[in-house]
Give the backbone structure.
Amino acid sequence: MHRLFAALLLVCACATAENHGVVAIRNAKIVTVGGPVLAKGTVVIRNGLIEAVGENVQAPADAAVIEGDGLTVYPGLVDGLSTWGMPGGAATAAGGGRGATAAAPAAAPTGAAATATPSRGPEDRPQTTSWLKAADEIQPGDRRIVTARAAGFTTAVAFPTRGIFAGQGAIFDLLTGETTGEMVVAPGAGQYIALATGGRGGGGGGGFPSSLMGTIAYIRQVYLDAAHYTLVKDAYARDPRGMERPAYDRALEGVLESKRILLPANRLVEIDRMLRFAAELKQPVILYGMQEGFRPEAVELLKKAGVPALVSLKWPEAPRDPDPELVESLRTLQTRDQAASAPMMLKKAGVPFAFYSDGVDVARDLQRAVKKAIDAGLSRDDAVRALTLSPAEIYGVADRLGSIEKGKIGNLVVTRGDIFDDRTKVEMVFVDGVKYIPPPEAPAGGRGAPATAEAPAQGGVR
Amino acid sequence: MRIAIAALLALAPLGAQTVAIQNATILTVTHGTIKGSILVRDGKIAEVGDKVMVPAGATVIDATGQYVIPGMVDAHTHIAADGGVNEGSISDSSMVDIRDVLNPEDIALYRALAGGETTIHILHGSANAVGGQCVTIKTRWGKDAQGLIFQGAPPGIKFALGENPKRSGNPTGRTATGAAPTARYPATRMGVEDTIRQAFTDAKAYQAEWNEYRAKVARGENAIPPRKDLRLEPLVEVLQGTRIVNCHGYRADELLMMLHVAKDFGFKIDLFVHCLEGYKIADEIAAQGAGVSTFSDWWIYKVEAADAIPYNAAILAKKGILVSLNSDDAELMRHMNIEAAKIMKYGGLSENDALAMVTLNPAKQLRVDKWVGSIDAGKDADLAIYDKYPLSASAKVLKVMIDGTVYFDRDKALADNIKAQQDRQKLIEKEKQNQTRQQPARRPTV
């Protein structure tokens, strides 16, 4: 095993040293996701793009050839809702700060909207940085990029996540050593909206809004204001003479330029509420969370609304060190028991869904989390799809990402064994055709290797 | 009790078709107590009387020895709302709406149902002078949020006077954790009045702005509509009389103040809630046609609730004021029949007048009395069946029907409880086994 790994490294090293951006993986099992699984095929990457894939494809003469016997090639994994590379720390749990049920602290927005005086109403645009663009905020030095890549992720759809209108997401490739501009695949992934509230009932100095209904009323007012703003601006643009100049409102500008919104929904009642709310706002929506996505009523609602769902891979867990007096409801217990069957239920109903990491970024944890959904009835193929082509489709970038297809971006994961199996090793990851080799891992259940030990990327292959 | 939740979620309400409740003692509220039957068809009361023909194929509920009252109506509750019932950050929060955050899974809803309540008004809290919008629902346990809403019932709004909106419990404006002072205006009762007056002044200006715009459009002029303001829209509806006004208040002086405000701006107060000193100003309340929703004998839980008497409701009622009794509380709402009974003791109201305070009177206040509040042909079949005389502490609710559908059945509920308990135990065992099998991988140290 070790010898083989060393041999591979050697091959790669030689190849990359001599070639300029052409790699061929030969005689590997190729899970194209978009098409059939190739038992023994070849995939060629040139200049960061997939040049060819197939059973009868020949490795070009100028290609660095990787012998793929015993290896499986998948499209690079995509995190459907991420905070990797975003300033301001790690993602929080689905049932925690990001979930609709929990009240995240009323953190000051990352942008200049942070003010000393508490907000007195919607006019103050509280907790709003809708103009903030993830594409402008990428921190390429974020360690989680390295960790996630070692788990097979090549792409993240990352969002600013602080405040109510947190900002606009970006789809970017998990490259290291490139400019952030080169990482970005698509800058406008949508507006991330959280229903975090400032405190319990308010009056605590956090300002407006301090309740869920306050947050909903605020969001509703913002969309009404945005419509009115557009109306007034258009009228002014047509004929400014004699008309009072409309004030520029960056909060509304940010909202108006977002082509979709993301709303949190874990419980059935939240799924129902958010679907109705999005319909009222007339905004294309993606719901995230889905802890009760296993409930047939929830699946039915999503199907009827034709709304895609992002399922958190952080499955609900029993509280650690619980209060001995704690009596958990049957419903809570059922949710913990069945949450992982949501993907299977969504698949069966034909509801588009994708996974998102929600803090699960270490290879072993990721494998375990996805395995849980597979054990609950999701097919392996569909599990792979939920981390590749499905998120690409949901965000409208399936023309460049998500499957191994000629012309798409050269994002690949090469594993030894089935990608979500316990003992599987991620051998190498290609991001925009650049090869990365994850650090050797300790056996399952043991300590993971320090992320800093990732092998050098052998320089850019392109 | 908690364990009953899921089991009851699974309990599909028994189908609504033709149902006959036979051999019962029926407290109709509008036309006395009769021994006889109620025929329910398509969710409505088709017939009630001592000689009711039961059509073939009707489901028969034999209520021999049992009592039927109209499903109770509660004008003041704070249950079934997610994420808080107060938008307490600002003193004028009329843009928020309980309707947006209805939580049909709140167990309090089921308990209210099991206590015989079928229609409830869910109010915004009393933290603000101008509170949020309120909604009337039916306790249709098992339905989704939209399925709870009482179609046709006008929406409400909450105002609050006194200690709560002026923050008496928190005079420095400091939070328990010592966070920065809120500096929230108002801090006095006069400030509360000012806040309400300012809100209505704004609403009138807003209304005028829209009227001007509509006039322009009507004249065929090119005009840009004003900005729609969610804070002022409901206040305009109050001025137009299409929204129910709930006003929280205890002391006679500030209740009088609110009567003046209402008179000045030309709206009616549908419900003074609490209104513990109402007996002191009964004539003034009666003169303006305001309604009252009060407690039977609950007081002294704070200074402004000190000068109260249990005869309040009876005194107000005898002055011709429309009076209801409310719960304001998830526990109290499970036995509002007893609250009605107390008014028979304090003030000597008749059984009928006392029962009306938890049925027909609040239905009138909420403007839903053409559908609910009494047992009359044509009204919604919202009924509570008791095993004993219902204006008594020993009576138990056996069945509750809403729109002709049985949403609570005591026998079934008790059986489901046992099943739910077993299911719960199984899941706890299963989780324990899984936990011992799996140890989470530790994150690499960076």
Q: What stands out?
A: The longest helix of chain A spans residues 212-238. The longest strand of chain A covers residues 22-31.
